[in-house]
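Table 4 source record.
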Amino acid sequence: MSIECSVRSSVTLFARPRMVCALLCGIFAAPALLGAQQPYKVIDQWKVGGDGGWDYLQIDPPAHRLYLTRGPRVDVVDTTSGKVVGAITGLHGTHGVALDAAGKLGYISDGGGNAVVVFDRATLATVATIAAGTNPDGILFDPATSSVWAFNGRSKDATVIDTTTQKVVATIALPGKPEFPASDGKGSIFVNIEDKNEIVRLDARAHTITATWPLAGCDSPSGLALDVAGSRLFSVCDGKKMAVTDAKTGASIATPAIGDGPDAAGYSAKFKLAFSSNGEGTLTVVDAGKAEYPTVQTVPTQRSARTMIYDPSTDRIYLSAAELGPRPAATPENPRPRPSMVPGSFTVIVVGR
């Protein structure tokens, strides 16, 4: 409800009705203001600097730590100050970070080293290096089985690691190139298959594929988010589309519009919102609480900010970005070259409300 009130001090005849109107404005507007959520916006930018590219981020809300994969290292940022507080070094080409449920160990997919590197979260010291497939990329910790799953982009398989022994217990062949995975915490794991426009469901206990579903209207799915309570998967795709899939049946639910060049996805269970970080320099917010799945906000971020992580404890989104130089000319060996990064320009963008 909207009530418009104006008071003209020169018209005393209507002073008392105007006062009543002002009072009604306060009564009716207060619940609306309390119930409404403010739009998302960039609220901070942390200049991290350093050279080299980047890939996925990981958040540890209780420890107020943000992990940033940065090629041969993983930088660790304090989310209360925005300052780098440490790093895991001596790596080759990092992609993602998984965190165990006990709060003790972290696992890095070191694609350049064809390995998963285990580190102590208190000291950031490396405690083990476990051989994986070729170019491990997406990685997650599955709480139902206390195992870590590394999805190997070039060998097109998944390496399963028992976190009690730090040993590989299974290698599972996949139908194509895996991208980002998600776990429901109940024994099912999902992963996008980028080159087949599919999504695969795996049994985390039996180490087998239980379903392969086509992603209708989705080209080159990359980032993946999961609504556990609602059994919905959110895959971000080329062509400015997000594919929403029923996690029980594989049925296509919707394909809401997002920005161009997405790479990561997120989901807020509390607010029923799905997010897509887009390389064009936007963050798309989709209302997953409505049957139409409308795109409710496009937040300007920065060109290249295509990876993100959502922190449900603060309702904030962290994105990695950097200033980019000119794109090199295409060659037969590299038909889609990436522009170079301006040295020292790496930044974490903080979006909140």
